[in-house]
Structure formats: C-alpha cells, structure tokens
Amino acid sequence: MINVGQTNSLEVVKIADFGVFLDAGEFGTTLLPSRFVPEGLEVGHFVDVFLYFDSENQLAATTETPIAQVGEWGLMKIEGVNSTGAFADWGIKDKGLLIPFSEQRKRFTAGQNVLVYVYTDKASGRIVGTTKFNKWLDKTPANYQRNEQVDLIIAERSELGYKAIVNGAHWGMVFPSDVFGKLFIGKRLKGYIKNIREDGKIDLALQKIGVAKMDDLSSKILETLEKKGGFLPLSDKSTPEAIFATFRTSKGTFKKTIGGLFKQGKIVIEQDGIRLAD
C-alpha cells in the first residue's frame, strides 16, 4: 500500500535520462528526478522516497527528508503568506507546506518559526499543516502510570507553565516548579508522568518523582564516576547549568542525591568535586 505524505520503499521499474520511474502501486508510476537518484540504482532495486503531491496535484517522489511526515509534528519556518494561507518550509525544496487560514490559531508572517502538525485533508486529499492541535489530541483515555517515561514536544508557553504533547496523543503541563534547563517551542525531550487528575489532565515532570528519581540519579552519578576515573569536578557548589549539562537534573536534586551517597559511604565530597570512596 502506498502512503502519500510518508516515506515508502518503491521498486525501480524504468531508467531514463532525467530520472527513474518507480512502481507506485495504485498510483501507477512516479518519477524520481535524476538529482535525487542514488548512485548505482538499477531496475529492480528498491529506494526509500518521500511521496507528496506537487503543484499540479501529481504524485511526486524525493529522497529529501521532511521535517515532519503525515501524522507528525515539526517546527517549521513560515516562508510566505498568500490569499490561501501560510506556506512553511518542511524540508521539501520544491513544495512548501500549506497551513490554511482555517487551520491557524493566529495569523502568521514570513520568518516565524511555528510548531505544525501535518495531516491529509480528507475533502481535498492535500497534505496540509495545522496549528489547531486540540482535534488531534486527547482522543483516547490517558492510561499512564506515575513516573512512566514519555516522549514530549514542547508546544506552548502560558502563565501556568509549558504545554507539551505527550507521546503524540495527549496534552500535558510542565509547571514552573518542574522546569529546569532551557525549554522552547518545538523542543523534544523525555519526561515523566507526575500526576493524572480526576478531570484527565496530565501533570508532567522532567525527571523521575520521589525516591525513584533519587535512585535513578544515584546510579547515573556512580556510573559516571567510574567512567571518569573516580572523580568529577561537580559538587554542591557547582552552577545549575554545569550540573544540568552532565546529568540533566536540577541542582537541588543533585545536592540531595550526593548527600545520600555520602551518607551511604559511596562517595567523598571535596571542595572541587566528588570522588568515589575507597
């Protein structure tokens, strides 16, 4: 089955001076222009190509990698605006991604970077983008467990904190008290389920909660010390940025964790860092 708007593995059926023709199933054949043809490609070989409709609504193939395929989110730059909507650079040089005015939560201008969801419009069959995410999220119950690791995309910033897309399926919120490191729209990172409220809303954390968080960081610190010859130039006096760069955690959590390791006799805390105990 051919999936337009996604990467497909297609067979070469004919070679021409201007490219190769690929078997596109129910669409017949499609041309992969010569500038995209990998060296040594022959009839009978398979090649991975992204399929989309060109400006004449004909099936087109490219070996370029889009920022986001159908069913995915991606941070894209607005290239221009016309009477139909805004066009975003989604990584396909010959074809901008249309974001119709009806799919914009607010009007865009050229040069803006926006988080976009890519989908196929059922009425027209066109691949388009949207910034109205609500109709694609929270369609199934949020069946997560506390401290479960999830994939996050930072989508919005508000007075309450950062709204994030959880596993591509649900909305979640990272409150200011749980923010450390630099967050920005479009950033992808791992997070953890902190709480699911009675109304189904999800609270998120960027590190494990409670004892699990401390145990996880303890193991990382000991493993890193062993890899570094038993010493790390990090201590409770180090900057939050230095600690985050090494362990992706807050300074407060780091201080509590090395304090626990010190009490257990596993490390020695020195003025300029920490060392494995003999």
UniProtKB/TrEMBL annotation:
Residues 4-63 form the Conserved virulence factor B first S1 domain. Coiled coil: none annotated. It comes from the Bacteria. Residues 220-276 form the Conserved virulence factor B-like winged helix domain. Signal peptide: none annotated. Pfam families: S1_2 (PF13509), WHD_CvfB (PF17783). Belongs to the CvfB family. This is GntR family transcriptional regulator.
